[in-house]
Design brief:
Shape: globular
Strand order of the largest sheet: 2-1-3-4-5
Number of domains: 1
Helix content: 40-55%
CATH topology: Maf protein
CATH architecture: Alpha-Beta Complex
Structural class: alpha/beta
Strand content: 15-25%
Order of helices and strands: HEHEHHEEEH
Distance between the termini: 26 Å
Largest sheet: 5 strands, mixed
């Protein structure tokens, strides 16, 4: 967690300066993205809310994404991450949505992705997605890497 705080603080400063808000939907990062952001003093100025979307039931209940809306899309992909980022931003009325989905390990997921695979998306006035491949089985390390990558992607987008 300590390693994530500098990433989150840079995001916090930038969002507050811009007067913009953020909503987070994370999965294999397990809440680390939100925890790091909320550790920033004055987080209420930019952080609207977030959720750990770990199951289909959570996705449908919290984001309103039904199985029918997923036709041709599966978890742990860039299109799915973008869908989550869009849904959380719209659901909570935030300027930006940030989403992460993947396989933290020690094994891969049921879709065939190796441990250390994650996709991150930012949705808002600009949209961007990335895929991360650590190729490691270390669950906690992967979770930290995924959270840092998500914060760094958001910072890139709001700094451009």
């Amino acid at each position: 967690m300590q390693q994530l705080l500098p990433h989150a603080e840079r995001v916090a400063v930038r969002l507050k300066t811009r007067g913009e808000t953020l909503a987070v939907a994370e999965s294999s990062a397990g809440g680390l993205i939100s925890a790091a952001l909320l550790a920033s003093p004055g987080a209420s100025a930019f952080y609207v809310g977030g959720a750990v979307i770990y199951t289909g039931a959570a996705r449908e209940a919290l984001l309103g994404i039904s199985p029918a809306m997923l036709t041709g899309t599966r978890s742990a992909t860039e299109p799915y991450a973008r869908l989550l980022a869009d849904a959380i931003a719209n659901k909570l009325g935030a300027t930006w949505g940030l989403a992460e989905t993947g396989a933290s390990g020690p094994s891969g997921n049921r879709y065939g992705d190796a441990p250390g695979h994650a996709c991150v998306a930012v949705f808002g006035p600009v949209a961007r997605t990335i895929t991360i491949e650590t190729r490691r089985e270390d669950r906690m390390e992967n979770m930290r890497v995924f959270a840092a990558a998500a914060l760094d992607l958001l910072l890139q987008v709001i700094t451009d």
